[in-house]
Amino acid sequence: MTVLLHIISRTVALMPLKPALKLGRGLGWVLGSIVKYRRADVIASLKSAFPDLAHSDVRRIADEMYKQQGMNLIEMLRLSALGAEDFEGRVAVEGGEHLEGALQGGRGAIILTAHLGNWDMLGVLASQRGYRVTIITKGVKNPALNRFWSGSREQLGLKLVPAKESYRACLRALRQNHLVGFILDQNMTEEEGIFVDFFGRPACTTPGLAYMSAHSGAPVVPVFAVRRSLSDHKILVLPPLEPVREKDKDTIRTATQQYTSIIEDMIRSHPEQWIWMHRRWRTRPDQCARLKEPGIERLSLA
User: Fold this and answer.
1) Closest listed residue to residue 146, CA positions, set 291, 294, 1, 295
2) CA 236 and chain centroid, separation
3) CA–CA distances in Å: residue 181 to residues 2, 4, 54, 110, 224
4) Which helix (H) or strand (E) holds 265?
5) Residue 185, SS3?
6) Is the pTM of this model over 0.85?
7) Strands 233-237 and 220-227
8) What pLDDT digit, counting tens, does each position of 256-301 carry?
9) Mean of the per-residue pLDDT values of the chain
């Protein structure tokens, strides 16, 4: 299957860009309107997050979200074949000076991001521009797809570390003044996460980013990708957040809430570009016998 994925990747790369992206929108439409993959979950999550929206607007956002994911898929496949050059001339960066400033402290920087826009390109473009980037990843469940994705990203200059027990590897990268990419919008289990507010509902979230900032003294820099048009993107680099000063439970929870609120604000600005099909609120407080504070060695970071 890995060979087949490489063939598909090269075939998509041979297509002109805009027709390829329109193909991606069509694939997304099929996934959302014909296959209806998790569509009921998407609609329910959108209604909960935006209770004042008319049902027609909820459906419009859901339809566009699937099409956005289809375009992301096409760009992922093209990226594997063409590298970062495929994005040449169609990505604007706003606030890049914030990242440069954060690195001047010599403790590296933790990149806070989410599954918004084409998040997959962030690390690759950063690596192309000379940054040393470590990405925390859960990997993909399908083994062949995981080999294809991770292999192509490593060839493009990224260092991938598995989410579980990757804490020390990330600290080493930060000590070398590198970047560590952290996607914070994934549901965690009771043992791995803490509950913070996300769109008015408790969402089980890893405290790993806050612990890592406190342990390393590294600032946290929010960075997000948003799609501006069919083929153009913008990377938004927000001002860095000061390192977390303490490792006590309340401080870690407060920092994790701050990070989550930043993500929520970005999603509210671009709701059609976030993966609403992800079951973000799957772990519920009423299902948990008690909340545990995870030890450093078993932190699941993503």
Assistant:
1) 1
2) 14
3) 26, 29, 36, 6, 11
4) helix 249-269
5) coil
6) yes
7) antiparallel
8) 999 999 999 999 999 999 999 999 999 999 876 544 455 444 455 5
9) 92
